[in-house]
Amino acid sequence: MKAEIISIGTELLTGKVVNSNAAFISNELTSLGIDVCSQVTVGSYTQDIIASLKKSEERGELIILIGGLGPSEDDITKQTLSSYLETDLILHKETEERIITYHKNSELKMPENNQLQALILAGSTPLKNDTGIAVGMILTKGSHQYVLLPGPADEFRPMVKNYLKEELIKRFIDTQVFESRKLRFFGITEAELVERIGEDINKYEQVVVTINSCEEEVTVKINVRADTRKEAENYIDEIQMKVLNKLNSYFFGYGEKKLTDVVKDLLLERSLTITAAESLTGGAFMSAITSGESAGSIFEGGVVAYSEDKKHQVLNINQETIDEFGVVSKQCAVEMAENARRIFDADIGIGLTGVAGPGSLEGQIPGTVFIGLSYKGEDTNVQRFHFDYRRNKNRKLAVLNALDMVRHFILNLPTKNDAKCDKNL
Amino acid sequence: MKAEIISIGTELLTGKVVNSNAAFISNELTSLGIDVCSQVTVGSYTQDIIASLKKSEERGELIILIGGLGPSEDDITKQTLSSYLETDLILHKETEERIITYHKNSELKMPENNQLQALILAGSTPLKNDTGIAVGMILTKGSHQYVLLPGPADEFRPMVKNYLKEELIKRFIDTQVFESRKLRFFGITEAELVERIGEDINKYEQVVVTINSCEEEVTVKINVRADTRKEAENYIDEIQMKVLNKLNSYFFGYGEKKLTDVVKDLLLERSLTITAAESLTGGAFMSAITSGESAGSIFEGGVVAYSEDKKHQVLNINQETIDEFGVVSKQCAVEMAENARRIFDADIGIGLTGVAGPGSLEGQIPGTVFIGLSYKGEDTNVQRFHFDYRRNKNRKLAVLNALDMVRHFILNLPTKNDAKCDKNL
């Protein structure tokens, strides 16, 4: 099955808006085993849309049109397709009622042309819009399927995820079930990961594995088609086992939950509180910890001690430690973690010190970072890292590695045997 | 002049990469007064590229091809265009030398097929690549101009900005000069801004004004074509004056410099140090302050006091203040700012307290935020804000408004008369 994507909107052609919808749906279609042949973006002009439709029909069977379903004058996608396919637009009662209710609840005045948004192509199946007004739809005509979707990303994405995918599976993958699972990794690059598991995952015919990376986390999504749900899950379990056999120490969770959230939930579940003394990260670790709703249950406060003086005066780091080992040292990271934990009376104390860059500090090159983890009644754990030469990347990696140290500590996992982490300080 | 953009790459069709290049160049072309008619994305297949070329030639004169200039087997853009236009590929000596030097300096082995990247279409003008190997080019053939650009964004963007634009201006806008200026605003939404200045900016024929917003900042870019540089600048000055007449209190700078950087540079220039006591923002304000290279000159440290206990114990907020007014109060923000300034011995102290949400706190609704600014020997300034119901948006807006308060304080500007800022506490 081949798909063609047509995005409609002047704001895309002037570069005001980046077309992230096209990437989003392409990714979803690819995971269903549907090939995307081309993506086209045109303005809201009848003749341009029709020219694209003609071209796309030559190449693919599934034609996806995005945008132009709103109530404005230049929203002409439905009308254009209606006259092009010689198919009437008819009122979809359920959507009309939803629009009326929506305006009643929000005390907004309903514009006269708003009924337009409740029109669907005769014979099409409507796709629900849980986050907006415009209804989507899918229509079979001849050998082609036409899909119409709204342009705003916050309406587009849920409609694709929750309704379109299901409809496509029902129509084209109907004799089979479709299952997928996303595994999340930290501490390994996408390229390294591909190199280490590539051979294991490329030999199944009914499996598509998509690997992506975003903000230092790498995801492996296993997409399987099979005759039964049980069979699909067996495939997924088998592949997951092969992947984790090689990469278990980097694996931290499933789905859309990022490392920060995994660690915050672990702290919540175990009723542990955390604090930090931050130098190079300047508050970014605590900002991550407090980003979620229940921050008050795991965090009471912490300190940013950026200068040498304040490390000594406010955080009570021994002047002898600083004089003998420097602030970029294992010893300083240990004291920072321990003192923060005492001052803020927390279960876990994190100390972050290092050279963010671009310059060196105390003869240490940018990217040299020490992270200490103190827990009541136990020896303080400390690790040395060598990251990158870029300041902001170093700060980000320091925060994420500190979070990962917390995860390893809580779950009692062995420290990662990672080239970047040098345990012989 | 009409332009067509063809992006080439399988990673775009699988949704692995979002096509931000298309938006970037469309924005640049629009600001030059060149209309983009369509954007197409195809895979690295000769017949697909040729089909797109044919279609694009029907619609536009300027055909821009992005991607497929590398040394891999599926990099076929140059070769395809060469055979399609019946134009030879010839070796560009300067690029070849640059590739050899590049590999010598980096101690990398030069791959055999790397000379491929030094080939250009006969008769084309090469476009320099300052951040990579592949050379770009522009070729006139019949009534069309063909532009070839590399796909990686960090090579693509500088090439467009520094070389392609100049070449296009020289070729098509050559009798006129082209000037532009970007103004940056904070504290106003894009929609409000358009409403307030729309009439003033839409009546000049040789002026294109593009308005955008990103991360709570709004930019107004004034693009002018004129006979002389002086005339262009006069236009820009005139429009800027009209815009600033209405929006001066929101204006904070020019070009690509964001509010955070403007404030950090102001602190550096005036040799002022800053500290903060943060509650709802959890360290995000200090993280912003320390994001730049010279952080050590303006910041020594600060404290995150998230819980009521730690506000009292670590930050010495009077228990009476908390009992009488609560932690979400003008009085608490004032004490936080003042105590942080004293503890960390800084010129300016910022206190941030409020309700990030989603729940209420002390009977105050989410989005209620108090920001205090203390300066030695002066009365502490405090402002109350009502932002949003979303936690992360509230945290972000609190940080940016605190930065904006610092800017207003340093430049001795009147406090903004903003609906969102309620001075009658």
Automatic annotation (TrEMBL), chains A, B:
SUPFAM superfamilies: CinA-like, Molybdenum cofactor biosynthesis proteins
Name of the protein this chain belongs to: Putative competence-damage inducible protein
PANTHER family reported for this sequence: NICOTINAMIDE-NUCLEOTIDE AMIDOHYDROLASE PNCC (PTHR13939), NMN AMIDOHYDROLASE-LIKE PROTEIN YFAY (PTHR13939:SF0)
Matches recorded under Pfam families: CinA, CinA_KH, MoCF_biosynth
InterPro entries in the record: CinA, CinA-like_C, CinA_C, CinA_KH, Competence-induced_CinA, MoaB/Mog-like_dom_sf, MoaB/Mog_dom
TM region positions: none
Gene: cinA
All copies of domain MoaB/Mog, residue ranges: 4-171
Family: Belongs to the CinA family.
Domain of life assignment: Bacteria
Alphabetical list of CDD domains matching this protein: cinA (cd00885)
Source lineage: Bacteria, Bacillati, Bacillota, Bacilli, Lactobacillales
HAMAP family per UniProt: CinA_B
